[in-house]
Design a protein that fits this description.
There is one protein chain. By secondary structure, this protein is an alpha/beta fold. The protein has helices at residues 34-48, 73-90, 117-130, 146-160, 175-178, 202-210, 232-236, and strands at 13-14, 25-29, 53-59, 99-103, 135-139, 167-171, 191-197, 242-248. The chain has one domain (3-248): LmbE-like (Rossmann fold). Helices cover 32% and strands 17% of the residues. The protein has an 8-stranded mixed β-sheet with strand order 1-7-8-6-5-2-3-4, sandwiched between helices. Helix 1 (34-48) links the parallel strand 2 (25-29) and strand 3. Helix 1 (34-48) packs antiparallel against helix 6. The longest helix is centred in the N-terminal third of the chain and has 18 residues, at 73-90.
């Protein structure tokens, strides 16, 4: 879908003070870098309000450069987890207290009959309860990456098992580049889109994105030239002074 057909610029803009009302927040990231790309600015704003922020990393992040010989899968996982923690620190969060689910990158389970789904849901629920989360940040349910959609389903299952689930805000990552018309919200979804002004936290966000050195040119896993790197065009979407979210409409 062409970028200029996305309606995001028309969404209502909420001020930076919006963050102050979110309370204790948990960010759930499918891969290391999604936390910075999707809502790094909001995380920075939350910490400026001295609100607790905890993070969940769903996948092991090892498949961005699977042909690397210099870095084994375990080594790639270690590098990316270290980048994840560093990025959170730059956003003012405590990366050391993150929950790492370690699910296979590219194969995050999306249904109860897939190995690892039920155990991941239990761990997610326990973590949300432990953090006393008032808000959870999760990828948009149809963000065009299978791991992002699977992450949404894991969180949804965890929330359904909670007697008092936290508020859910859905952020976008790959929707900027890969979305088809059917990936965008419809009336059946019962959600509304809005933007949050993150200008005050944009510098921190960009530093957090850059901290994922393995994903930004020239990269770290340089012996796999076919491996994934974030393109300049993709990165440009995240240099705007706002972030896009969806939330269920309450009646």
């Amino acid at each position: 879908m062409a970028e200029n057909t996305l309606p995001f610029a028309e969404y209502p803009l909420r001020p930076a003070s919006f963050a102050a009302g979110l309370g204790s927040t948990v960010i759930v990231a499918p891969h290391p870098d999604d936390e910075a790309l999707g809502c790094g600015g909001l995380l920075a704003l939350l910490r400026r309000e001295a609100l607790p922020v905890a993070a969940v990393l769903v996948s092991d992040g090892s498949m961005s450069h699977p042909a690397s010989k210099l870095f084994s899968a375990a080594a790639r996982q270690a590098v990316r987890e270290a980048e994840f923690r560093h990025a959170l620190t730059l956003l003012g969060c405590d990366g050391a207290e993150s929950l790492l689910l370690g699910l296979p990158d590219g194969q995050v389970p999306a249904t109860t009959d897939e190995p690892g789904f039920s155990s991941a849901v239990k761990r997610l629920r326990a973590f949300l309860e432990e953090q006393q989360a008032a808000t959870v940040l999760v990828p948009w349910r149809r963000d065009p990456h299978p791991d992002h959609r699977a992450t949404s389903r894991l969180v949804q299952a965890a929330l359904l098992a909670m007697p008092q689930p936290p508020r859910r805000l859905e952020y976008v990552v790959w929707t900027w580049e890969r979305a088809e018309l059917e990936d965008l919200p419809t009336a059946a979804d019962g959600v509304q889109g809005f933007r949050v002004n993150i200008e005050a936290g944009l510098g921190q966000k960009l530093r957090a994105v850059a901290a994922h050195r393995s994903q930004v040119a020239p990269g770290i896993f340089t012996d796999d030239p076919s491996g994934f790197l974030l393109s300049a065009e993709m990165l440009a979407h995240f240099e705007t002074p706002y972030e896009v979210f969806f939330e269920a409409v309450t009646t």
